[in-house]
Amino acid sequence: MARIARRANGSVKLAVVGADNVIAPMINYTEQVRRLMSDIVSRVPRLSFLDMNRVLVFARSGRADREGPYATCHCVCLPPSDPGYYFWRDQTTGALTRRSEWFVTKSPVVRVGTAQIDYMVSFTLPRFCDQRRISARKRARYRGHPEWMAKLDTIIHELYHIDPHQPGIRRIERADGTPSTKCHSPAFFQDVVEMVTQYLTSSPDPEMLEFLRYDFAGLTARYGGVVATTFKGASYPRRYMEVLRPQPAAPDLECPVEPLDLPRSASHFTEEDLVVRRFRTATSRDLPKGKVRAA
């Protein structure tokens, strides 16, 4: 039998009820990150528009020796897209030969308790903790500082992706003011550095940053294990396609219509879709609900 008790600093106690009543402390990484994010938005004016009650922090598996992102910002508040369809044309004449059914792309509804979630930030564990491939650009930005500063940079970087003016990811502009298709710009990276500096000079509680100082092995040694909130299985909320019913009338598109064979995607998520998972160097495993209860 096991019990989990959350501490104020985001770590948890896993009390294994049984032989010798052994108690092994573990750190809840996503709770620590969320706590740090809340402190950041309270101290950095450029991020003060964020309502952390509408931001969900969760973990995904990602080995440190594999390529991939350390963290990702996900928007789940975009309105449905305009109706569209796929089509095929004759290479010689350009005539429409066939098309798909009309469809729209939607955002799933994500609610945790009474809170409507608009954005999610995912962290890959243990890859985020181990950040072995710190870019030369990031090393130059924080020359003379400890390497864990790269993790703080990543956390603020993901928060900065949230657009303060409209639903979606922050728009990036070119030097001439026109929209860019890129997610980053030199100004974006420089803004993040300035916010990191602003946060650190605001005299935050050192305990707030303590967990960033350790790699995954160090966290495991210090806390006895690493757990995090994540979604059941390998899925998590993301935009999905839905065939329009009924189909719009389109007399100017007279050609064969191919039915769309879309994968089944969940459209609603709640706290029932969240689990606490223990992460290890190469694997992760859900903590059984039957054996874990809040203290």
Low-confidence stretches: 1-23, 290-295
Our count of helices gives 7
Element string (H = helix, E = strand): EEEHEEEEEEEEHHHEEHHHEEEEEEE
Secondary-structure content class? alpha/beta
Mean pLDDT: 85
Strand content: 25-35%
Please, how many domains? 1
> How many whole angstroms does the radius of gyration measure?
23 Å
Report the end-to-end length measured between terminal Cα atoms: 12 Å
Spatial strand sequence of the major β-sheet: 19-18-14-3-2-1-20
Strand count: 20
Major sheet details: 7 strands, mixed
Shape label: globular
- Which bin fits the share of residues in helices? 10-25%
List the helices and strands and how they pair.
Layout: E1 2-6, E2 11-16, E3 23-28, H1 29-43, E4 55-62, E5 71-75, E6 87-89, E7 96-100, E8 103-106, E9 109-112, E10 115-116, E11 119-126, H2 127-130, H3 136-141, H4 149-160, E12 172-173, E13 179-180, H5 186-200, H6 206-209, H7 216-223, E14 226-231, E15 240-243, E16 257-258, E17 268-269, E18 274-279, E19 284-286, E20 292-294
Parallel strand pairs: 1-20, 3-14, 4-11, 7-16, 9-17
Antiparallel strand pairs: 1-2, 2-3, 5-11, 6-7, 8-15, 9-10, 12-13, 14-18, 18-19
Helix pairs in contact: 4-5
Structure description:
With 295 residues, this protein is an alpha/beta fold. It has one domain. The chain has a seven-stranded mixed beta sheet with strand order 19-18-14-3-2-1-20. Helix 4 crosses helix 5. 26% of the residues are buried.
List keywords for this structure.
295 residues; single chain; globular; seven-stranded mixed β-sheet; 29% strand; disordered C terminus; alpha/beta
